[in-house]
Design goal:
The chain is about 55% helix and about 10% strand. It has four helices and four strands, in the order E-E-H-H-H-E-E-H. Strands 1-2 form a two-stranded antiparallel ribbon. The chain has a two-stranded antiparallel sheet with strand order 3-4. It is elongated, with a radius of gyration of 18 Å.
Length: about 110
């Protein structure tokens, strides 16, 4: 009897003691904020509600000891949002974890 060819799969997310901090979906949100700078543009691209985007941002900020996303309420463009330095650091850490996890899965899938 021959076994089927199984593949290791999975996704990775970062957690604090209270909450999950970063997952693939939240990463997409943070990257879109970094790219566009306006939540209104982000929600159109991601096809999520404005309220849901702010709920996620508020959860990210609340579960971190430093803010991840800052809201700018002034400026010639009428405000916007930006990733903070701690947000950039979190994003880099998450991307590093993802890369290492992908390499781990690749190694597992080489086993015959």
């Amino acid at each position: 009897m021959e076994l089927k060819n199984y593949q290791a799969k999975g996704r990775i997310w970062l957690e604090t003691e209270q909450d999950h901090q970063l997952s693939p979906g939240r990463q997409k949100l943070i990257l879109a904020i970094k790219e566009f700078g306006f939540i209104s543009k982000v929600v159109k691209k991601m096809k999520i509600s404005y309220r849901h985007a702010w709920e996620i941002i508020n959860e990210l900020n609340a579960s971190s000891n430093l803010p991840i996303v800052e809201k700018n309420s002034s400026g010639s463009g009428g405000g916007g949002s930006k990733l903070t330095e701690s947000g950039e650091t979190l994003l880099k850490q998450y991307e590093q974890c993802q890369n290492e996890f992908e390499a781990f899965k690749s190694e597992l899938n080489k086993v015959e």
